[in-house]
Amino acid sequence: MTRPGNRPQSAAEQKLAASLAGAVDLSGLKKRAETRRDAATAGRAPGQGGPPQAGGSPVRVEVDEASFEQEVLVRSAQVPVILELVSQRAPTALTATLAALAEEAGGQWVHATVDVDVAPGIAQALQARAVPTVYAVAAGRPLADFEGEQPEDALRQWLAAVLRATEGKLSGPAPEAGETEPDEASDPERDAAEEALAEGDLATAEERFTALVDARPGEHTLVEALRYVGAARRVAEDADAGEGTVPEALRAADAALVAGEYETAFSGLVGAVRVTAGDDRAALRARLLELLDALPADDPRVLAARRDLASALY
């Protein structure tokens, strides 16, 4: 395996890294608004793709720093993108195997390749240590990855796990030529909340999602969105300004949640709970319980955080 260069990032590469981090969508609820806005372009490749599937959407694309956002981040709102970092200096059989599996899958996922010698910024943004490295990207964020060659059976199992993990959570492949997508059921209140979020009006988005949560108890995706928006608003407004263990822990947890770093958000608050008492401890505990709603109650990360909190309290 060859290793990507460790040179300092250029301004363009730093921008790419920021784009990757900013694409993380904890709630998944910006996707519908963004998909409506980008519908005219989201299903098209910039002339670089491999053989097209039915309807013209590619099952294989070559990606560089200019096309990364459209071909990986935007496309991954539709289907998982299996992003393979390669080097022409050290070709491997993995690329051909993934290409064949992508064609066999017929559009269930897209195989994207990045030559790290041509686009080193992508490798640096992903903090890749070697090539080949493969990432599964869905809804704009990496879900899983592995390094090095893998046998075909292992690849099939890994891809099946990725499809199971994303089932029902993405919008699906672009429609075939001449077809139109069916209209979604009308939901004006939710659409208004999502539009406010997509436009960056966090105060309005929080107000609208709060009303929806109150009106539709038990609909977890709304709670998930509300927790994301609340954390994003506090970060933007520096709502927990100040020095000391409590405000620093609250700020760090919100920033980690917005960046999609759930374990960091939870563990940071648990650690602060361990070294505080009284009202400070109560405030930290309350924020942790609030942020835990950003994931389903049975998510392993939530279960682990609740166990750690119980240990810290008792």
From TrEMBL:
Residues 63-160 form the Thioredoxin domain. One of its GO terms (biological process) is response to stress. Residues 27-60, 169-195 are annotated as: Disordered. Pfam families: Thioredoxin, TPR_20. Coiled coil: none annotated. InterPro entries: Thioredoxin-like_sf (IPR036249), Thioredoxin_domain (IPR013766), TPR-like_helical_dom_sf (IPR011990). This is Thioredoxin domain-containing protein. The lineage of its organism: Bacteria, Bacillati, Actinomycetota, Actinomycetes, Mycobacteriales.
